[in-house]
Design goal:
Elements: H1 3-54, H2 62-79, H3 87-101, H4 118-140, H5 146-177, H6 181-196, H7 205-224, H8 235-245
Coiled coil: 194-221
Keywords: Coiled coil
């Protein structure tokens, strides 16, 4: 066998090895990319389902339920080709299609929840933060039109205001039931302060009037009660302050 033939065989072998290595790298890269896509889609699907199920009944509307169902359906349909053997996913897609087909008649089964504690209020604010981020992402993915996204961001802000109103109102009423008009007045005052900070005051006239009436009532009762030491630490006072202080939303938060 001539040296030229041997050299040719060696070069051909090296070329084959390099080609096999390159193909393996492409396959591995493709598998990694598919795994990344599956993980990302699964995470977004989980977030959509969580938001759809976790919002209390007084905050969930058919329009919001429909929007979340449509986004989850879109994500699930993108995931299915990457996870073809997932029977649970296929079943979920069918259920989502049936729900979306009902349009504004989509059933809303979320039970109402009375927001009584700071922990509850903060948990709901985290959900609203996630909802805001989801809307921003959906707009970038062109799953929501710019005008739709703008409307949903405004609705998310409105839900945040109503959350504050409900929490401070319930905290104030609880304090009244406990016979502490000072704490009640403080809670109603915090709620009024938050509502008055909003630019679109006309949207919250009803809530403001209710808070003003509650505040006036608590203030009148406080005058007839022995005034407590205002420097004395109060769990409600500190909780209200913490909740109000912690009210800076992560406006640019995106999944």
């Amino acid at each position: 066998m001539s040296s030229a033939l041997i050299a040719g065989l060696v070069l051909a072998g090296l070329f084959i090895l390099i080609t096999i290595g390159y193909i393996n790298q492409l396959v591995e890269k493709g598998n990694l990319e598919k795994a990344r896509q599956r993980a990302e889609l699964n995470d977004r699907i989980r977030r959509c389902a969580l938001l759809s199920d976790a919002f209390p009944g007084q905050m969930m509307t058919p329009a919001l339920k429909l929007m979340l169902s449509r986004l989850e359906l879109h994500l699930a349909e993108r995931l299915l080709p990457l996870d073809k053997k997932n029977a649970a996913l296929a079943s979920r897609i069918e259920a989502l299609r049936a729900s979306v087909a009902q349009g504004q008649d989509i059933p809303v089964t979320n039970p109402p929840t009375k927001i009584m504690t700071e922990a509850q209020a903060k948990e709901l604010r985290l959900l609203l933060d996630d909802l805001q981020a989801l809307v921003v992402w959906a707009a970038k993915q062109r799953q929501l039109e710019p005008m739709q996204a703008k409307q949903w961001l405004a609705e998310t802000q409105r839900m945040l205001v109503l959350l504050h109103v409900e929490y401070f109102t319930n905290a104030g009423k609880l304090a009244l039931q406990q016979g502490n008009a000072h704490k009640a007045r403080l809670a109603f005052e915090r709620g009024l302060q938050y509502v008055r900070k909003q630019a679109n005051q006309a949207d919250y006239q009803t809530q403001r009037k209710q808070l003003e009436a509650n505040y006036a009532h608590a203030n009148q009762l406080e005058q007839t009660q022995q005034k407590p030491d205002l420097n004395e630490p109060s769990e409600l006072t500190e909780g209200l302050k913490a909740f109000e202080t912690d009210d800076d939303w992560k406006k640019n938060n995106i999944y």
